[in-house]
User: What shape does this take?
Amino acid sequence: MRIALFLILVFITSILSAQTDSLRIEGGVVLDKSEFEYHSPGKAALYSLLPGGGQFYNKSYWKIPVVYAALFVTGGFVKKNHDLFKEYESEAINRFNYGDTINFPEMSDEEVLFYKDEYEHQRNLSILILVGVYLLNIVDASVDAYFFEFDVSPDVSLRIEPYFRPPTYNSSTPINAGLTLRLKL
Assistant: This one.
């Protein structure tokens, strides 16, 4: 709890103390210093320990609700499967220790044990998926920070041209024909 509170405090103070700075070059042109700052993947990973923090650092604001939705959905599955597991477990304990049938009188003892084991398996699987989603949040923030300054220019084109090379004089090579693909990035 103290670590989470510390991380939240560090995250909030870093946001509140951020300043826009400018850089003046000869000739009187004022440039924004944030254009030259390095975007750290490690810092993004550290911020994403609080889910969505790394996405906020990377200015990928649209990903924050996706991260929280994924965590809440998988957390809901963990809770549902855990509650059902506990219900079937208490029924199995009552049946085998005290001989009482409380919640599921229509089920046999084998069915109760089967559902107990099934919901335990589903709960454990849901926990693994929850951890995977959390780790995916951290990996996404790191990769997004790594490619933060990657140039995606609109001038991407593919040029397809026919290619024809006639045989040379007194040559036994056949005619070369085909397509030439030129990709401009």
About this structure: The first helix runs from residue 2 to 16. The mean pLDDT is 82.
